[in-house]
């Protein structure tokens, strides 16, 4: 009897609950929804509006300037320099840190000894306080007392003023960026490598694939294709957001040689308080990141099918 | 591929890895070494790692005397804990609703979550800053915590996790007379521990290391987070006293690095699993 009642109850429940469930669900989602509206939705829409005004913090009012900020940006040599620098930085950091991550992953995966230890050592820069590590790098790259130039002197090479010379500053920041990102990519590649079925290597060996290089070309690389594309996009999105090292070490200098998008956005908005102008830069940054993310989502969808 | 090869055959691989690892760890090693050297040895630019005259007490002493180190570390803990508590408290019930309840507007809500994943934190920054400035809330813990109380990534992650939980568990709890809210906190969250740990690590690492937002909303010393604290000290000293500067860098980096070395597998899992969305 009791059992029958329970069954009847559960069967009747869904239909009856539907209206009630909607209320409960929205109640559960309410705090997140309110915070989302207040901290993401409204401010992001406000940013888009701001980008078409000349709003400055502290100014009595603001005017609509239409595309004025964007036309000004296109003629702003500092901004164009910043975009070019960011592009160069990304084009250097993303490919090299991906290639380095893959190379180290293959080395670690090539044997059993020291796996956890090496993985941890290469991952260390990912969890470390960037500002603190940037100051450590500023010592290593110091033109007169830094160990890098001391080492170069010892073998008879004249070192450079790595962070102080407009010719080398972007390269130096890029090297720090690679150092920061390679460990992250390495771990993603390790996951990708572990997912490759072992029998594929056995099959390749039966087909006469002998050397490690041939094994890489015939099995590993094709199987790793989706992972690689995915890692490239992630690293690109991470690299395009470079800010901490620039803010700590160079402030965009010397002569704007290390000015990058987020740092330009920061100085325009929060040093000069030109909010409208800074919002326009942010909007362009968002467009760039969104394009990358859309490509990434495409790739993730495809990755699911590879399974 | 992963057979136990004899050490000799494995040696080239280990040598290459060791050399690469030495380069990667070099900044940490030098940071630690210089933090124990006296100024004259630092300026001699020798390649010797060990100090001839141990000057660590003076360097670290100077940091602790001139920089409110404890205060900065405490600020880091307060901010990270505050952010994490809100993120979990907001995201878990919402994620449960999205995963297990059938309600009107669910697809729209989930659509907004997916949309939110595409928006970097830099985008709402200017309007939030203006609002905080107008409200007189700059230079406060609220300014440091509020913008990050909502993590769409947390909602996304927990939703994925909750979807794999058996419906029977929830049905049984309902039959026992539990309300949906108590089901969330007493049944669902305890079972979501792996996802929660991974997310917690990701969140704490991200916000302990963040410079962008604290730099914007904090302009006075006593509310500085560890990242800001190192920057203040560096700018004050203009990089003149590398020994003390490196000592401050060591002190501010140590807590997370220690935690990482202690639980490295969990850290790597947490950061790469969740870091996919940055």
Outline of the structure:
Chain A: The chain crosses the membrane at residues 24-52, 87-108, 120-140, 169-196, 216-240, 275-295. Chain A has 307 residues and is mostly helical.
Could you walk me through the main structural features you see in this protein, from its secondary elements to its overall organization?
The complex is a heterodimer of chains A (307) and B (278). Chain A is mostly helical and 307 residues long. Chain A has one domain: MetI-like fold, CATH 1.10.3720. Chain A has helices at 2-50, 68-75, 77-109, 115-127, 130-140, 147-154, 169-194, 198-206, 212-240, 244-250, 261-271, 275-306. Chain B has one domain (65-275): MetI-like fold, CATH 1.10.3720.10. Helix content of chain B is 73%, strand content 0%. Chain B has 15 helices and no strands. Chain B has helices spanning 7-34, 39-43, 56-66, 69-100, 106-117, 125-134, 141-145, 152-163, 167-175, 180-191, 193-209, 212-217, 226-237, 242-262, 264-275. The two termini of chain B are 33 Å apart. The interface between A and B is large, with 98 and 106 residues.
């Amino acid at each position: 009897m009791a059992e029958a009642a329970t069954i009847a109850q559960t069967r009747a429940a869904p239909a009856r609950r539907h209206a009630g469930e909607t209320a409960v669900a929205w109640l559960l989602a309410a705090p997140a929804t309110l915070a989302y509206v207040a901290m993401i939705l409204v401010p992001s829409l406000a940013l888009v509006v701001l980008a078409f005004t000349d709003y400055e913090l502290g100014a009595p009012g603001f005017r609509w300037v239409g595309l004025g900020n964007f036309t000004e940006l296109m003629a702003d040599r500092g901004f164009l320099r910043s975009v070019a620098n960011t592009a160069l930085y990304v084009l250097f950091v993303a490919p090299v840190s991906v290639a380095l991550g893959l190379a180290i992953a293959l080395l670690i995966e090539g044997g059993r000894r020291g796996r956890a230890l090496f993985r941890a050592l290469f991952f260390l820069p990912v969890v470390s306080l960037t500002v603190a590590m940037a100051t450590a790098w500023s010592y290593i790259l110091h033109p007169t007392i830094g160990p890098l130039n001391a080492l170069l002197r010892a073998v008879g090479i004249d070192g450079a003023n790595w962070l102080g010379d407009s010719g080398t500053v972007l390269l130096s920041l890029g090297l720090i960026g690679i150092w920061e990102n390679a460990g992250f990519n390495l771990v993603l590649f390790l996951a990708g490598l572990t997912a490759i079925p072992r029998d594929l290597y056995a099959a390749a060996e039966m087909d006469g694939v002998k050397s490690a290089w041939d094994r890489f070309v015939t099995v590993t690389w094709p199987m790793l294709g989706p992972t690689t594309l995915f890692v490239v996009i992630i690293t690109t999105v991470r690299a395009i957001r470079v800010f901490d090292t620039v803010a700590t070490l160079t402030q965009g200098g010397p002569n704007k040689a290390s000015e990058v998008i987020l740092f330009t956005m920061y100085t325009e908005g929060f040093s000069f308080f030109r909010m409208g102008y800074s919002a326009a830069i942010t909007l362009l940054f968002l467009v760039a990141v969104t394009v990358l993310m859309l490509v990434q989502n495409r790739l993730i969808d495809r990755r699911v099918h590879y399974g | 591929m992963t057979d136990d090869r004899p050490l000799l055959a494995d040696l080239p691989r280990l040598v290459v890895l060791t050399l690469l690892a030495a380069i990667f760890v070099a900044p940490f090693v030098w940071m630690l070494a210089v933090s124990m050297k006296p100024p004259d040895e630092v300026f001699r630019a020798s390649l010797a790692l060990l100090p001839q005259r141990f000057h660590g007490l003076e360097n670290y002493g100077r940091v602790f005397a001139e920089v409110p180190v404890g205060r900065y570390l405490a600020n880091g803990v307060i901010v990270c804990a505050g952010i994490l508590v809100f993120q979990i408290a907001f995201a878990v019930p919402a994620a449960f609703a999205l995963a297990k309840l059938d309600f009107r507007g669910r697809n729209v809500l989930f659509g907004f979550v997916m949309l939110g994943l595409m928006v970097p934190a830099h985008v709402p920054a200017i309007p939030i800053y203006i609002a905080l400035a107008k409200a007189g809330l700059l230079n406060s813990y609220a300014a440091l915590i509020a913008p990050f109380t909502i993590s769409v990534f947390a909602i996304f992650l927990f939703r994925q996790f909750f979807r794999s939980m058996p419906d029977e568990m929830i049905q049984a709890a309902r039959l026992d007379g539990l309300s949906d809210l108590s089901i969330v906190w007493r049944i669902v969250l305890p079972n979501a521990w792996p996802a929660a740990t991974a997310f917690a690590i990701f969140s704490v690492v991200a916000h302990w290391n963040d410079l962008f937002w604290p730099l914007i909303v904090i302009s006075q010393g006593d509310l500085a987070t560890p990242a800001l604290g190192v920057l203040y000290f560096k700018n004050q000293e203009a990089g003149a006293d590398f020994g003390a500067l490196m000592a401050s860098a060591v002190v501010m980096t140590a807590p997370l690095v220690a935690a990482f070395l202690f639980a490295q597998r969990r850290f790597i899992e947490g950061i790469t699993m969740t870091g996919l969305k940055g």
